[in-house]
Specification:
ATP binds at residues 212, 297, 328, 355-358. This is Phosphoglycerate kinase. The chain has helices at residues 36-50, 76-86, 99-106, 138-146, 164-172, 180-194, 209-222, 233-240, 254-263, 302-312, 334-344, 357-364, 378-386, 391-394; strands at residues 16-20, 27-28, 31-32, 54-58, 91-93, 113-116, 124-125, 128-129, 150-153, 175-178, 200-204, 225-228, 268-270, 274-277, 286-288, 296-300, 317-321, 350-353, 373-374. By secondary structure, it is of the alpha/beta class. The chain folds into 2 domains: 6-183, Rossmann fold; 196-385, Phosphoglycerate kinase, N-terminal domain (Rossmann fold, 3-Layer(aba) Sandwich), CATH 3.40.50. The strands form 5 sheets. A 6-stranded parallel β-sheet has the order 5-6-4-1-9-10, sandwiched between helices. A 6-stranded parallel β-sheet has the order 13-12-11-17-18-19, sandwiched between helices. It has a 3-stranded antiparallel β-sheet with strand order 15-14-16. A hairpin with a 2-residue loop joins strand 2 and strand 3. Helix 8 packs across helix 9 (254-263) and helix 10 (302-312) runs parallel beside helix 11 (334-344).
């Protein structure tokens, strides 16, 4: 069933529209350091403003486990960054419910925007962890739904979670739809795995095989090659009988790695060499295939880079999730840089980079405008690729 989109919502003028966005952005010294997620949500918000709706933005920011966490996790600085990015004024209300919020809504004009405080402030009350937002408290979802006429979910980054601010609101509000961002995310990811142009190459980084076992399995069934690098490859190295030194691995998943290598022996490509160092520090390392006991691998080596370049040559669909190396260290960015360089030079190819660390890495490298699509949701994109139903999208009204 197709989900309702913004274009399916009629007569928006004067309607109060609750919009769940994903403004979970990095903040340092009270300032947003990367506004990509804010910018990604603007088309939906601009459309609603143009149609003279009253827009109420809801988002989380980080995790709230104590009252102390609230001091550094307010959305106030995010609201300020939104004004800079959009040039629209926004009324930030330092509350998640109650009289302050209700009065602010009553005073809204058509085409105006307000933002309530971090939805996860509802997870802690009087220093007690209650998780009203994160556990989809029915009363909270019902309350937020009562504030508006319509609900738009445009937070792909939390679509794989059932929270009060997405699933809860959708359950109790009269009409709901997905925003332009989620619509775009679904299209790119769906097309990539259901009707991929070939050769179709998947690149998977990250730390744990256990985190991506279902993704490896799902992609290996559809892709021509699945390339595994960074820390995740060391569990496979153990399965091959190679020495990995102090590198991060999951010894308890070795049997699983062996099964995957046997099942997909013609498709899996495992990084073979690594740039290694004694400590987890940004210092120059050395290349090894069998890593000495006192060293750890922090990036893929030149032999692996050469193999990846060969596999990517002529690729028509590429999905990349997880950096290939510790990219926060300058000395261990070469693997990811080499892959990025290959992707932006592919001709007539669909290139997709997964969210989370991968998206941050792509933006840091300045390649976001040269990639077909950079997902705003790391966990959500992986679960979508696994074929799982995403609660935040499933809760939205279907087209009759």
């Amino acid at each position: 069933m197709r989900k309702k989109t913004l274009h399916d919502l009629k007569d928006l003028k004067g309607k109060i529209v609750l919009v769940r966005v994903d403004f979970n952005v990095p903040i340092e010294n009270g300032k947003v350091t990367n506004n990509a997620r804010i910018v990604a949500a603007l088309p939906t918000i601009e459309y609603l403003i143009k149609n003279e709706a009253k827009v109420i933005l809801l988002s989380h920011l980080g995790r709230i486990k104590t009252e102390e966490d609230k001091k550094t996790k307010s959305l106030k600085s995010v609201a300020m960054e939104f004004t800079k990015a959009s040039t629209h004024a926004i009324n930030f209300v330092a509350a998640t419910r109650g009289k302050k919020v209700e009065e602010a809504i009553n005073n809204m004009e058509n085409g105006s925007i307000m933002m309530i405080e971090n939805t996860r402030f509802e997870d802690v009350k009087n220093n007690i962890l209650v998780n009203y937002e994160s556990k989809n408290d029915e009363k909270l979802g019902k309350y937020w739904a009562s504030l508006g006429d319509l609900f738009v979910n445009d937070a792909f980054g939390t679509a794989h979670r059932a929270h009060a601010s997405n699933v809860g609101i959708a359950k109790y509000i009269k009409e709901s739809a997905i925003g332009f961002l989620i619509e775009k995310e679904i299209k790119f990811l769906h097309d990539a795995i259901s009707e991929p142009k070939r050769p179709f190459i998947a690149l998977l980084g990250g730390a744990k095989v256990s985190d991506k076992i279902n993704v490896i399995d799902a992609l290996a069934k559809k892709a021509d090659k699945v390339i595994i690098g960074t820390a995740m490859c060391y569990t496979f190295h153990l399965a091959m009988g190679k020495k990995i030194g102090k590198s991060l691995a999951e010894p308890e998943k070795v049997d699983l790695a062996k099964k995957l290598m046997k099942k997909y022996q013609d498709k899996l490509v495992i990084a073979s060499d690594s740039i290694c160092t004694k400590e987890y520090k940004d210092v120059k390392g050395k290349v090894y295939e069998n890593i000495p006991d006192d060293l750890m691998g922090l990036d893929i080596g030149p032999k692996t880079i050469k193999v990846i370049k060969k596999e990517l040559k002529g690729a028509k669909t590429v999905i990349w999730n997880g950096p290939f190396g510790v990219t926060e260290f300058k000395n261990y960015q070469e693997g990811s840089k080499a892959i990025a360089h290959e992707l932006i030079n592919l001709k007539d190819a669909i290139t997709i980079i997964g969210g989370g660390d991968s998206a941050a890495m792509a933006i840091k490298m300045g390649i976001e405008g040269k990639i077909s699509h950079i997902s705003t949701g790391g966990g959500a994109s992986m679960e979508f690729l696994e074929g799982k139903e995403l609660p935040g999208i499933a809760a939205i009204n279907n087209i009759n």
